[in-house]
Amino acid sequence: MDQKGMDTGITTINRYKKADPRCKECISKSYGKMLMKFPFTHDKASEFNRFMESLLSSEAMGAAPHIHRELHQKLRVLNSIADPYKEEKKTSNRIALRFYKYWKPRVLAADDPFNLALRLAIAGNIMDFAVADRRFDLEETISYALAANLSIDHSSLLKERIRKAERVLYLGDNAGEIVFDKLFIETMLHPDVTYAVRGGPAINDALMDDAVEVGMDIAATVISNGYDASSTLLTHCSPEFLTEFKRADLIISKGQGNLEGLIETNDSRIFFLFMVKCDVVAEIIGVEKGSLVVYNPNHI
Q: CB count, 10 Å around CB of 106?
């Protein structure tokens, strides 16, 4: 449900409204690869490219999550496919569930289960088809995530906040990745966690079907955010989601897409967990591309 213009009760800093010029190049490459994936006719491919060029050159162009939504919708309409990445999402979930079976007993036996599950959750963020280079090696990424220092490490504060919170809202990102979120939520041992998925197809982001497929509905209460963008855009989310957002004592936000939608809210409840996949986001938070972060912007 589109709640544009609704008073969310959230203070937003109005700086991050337009995409960086570098985002345009990345988006163009990403959707160029998508055109190769689907059986577009020459005329339809040309129509999509004209639409994308017009959108990316528009003075009214919004931030990256808005652009991705417009392009993804256009792609779906032109190709008459409701969910273009449905099969990739199922494959990602199956792959991640195999890793879950391997890592679950190791997390339980670890000296610090919280830290291990947290790092696995961040590693799962690599399962992303929205970036221009969609190739990834999950096993290699997990090895890196377990060995690397966190470039921003507010994990001790996060652990303390989880312990004190009555209600936790966890904002999901990609299919496959959702399995590692489940493992982290199980390790948190918190009695009241709500997990939010997207309200409709948004590249390979997790939907309600993905949550049920991987058993997230057993680990947490699962809701939709009510909107089909690859981010959490509060002015568009459903009333049900906004109610949960306001009620939460702690909000865990996974992935760059959610960061782009929420970084300017100036909300001390939010912790961002993700891998930094582009130079633009790296500059915004002051780290190098490829960094792993657990980031609360209000933490000094």
A: 12
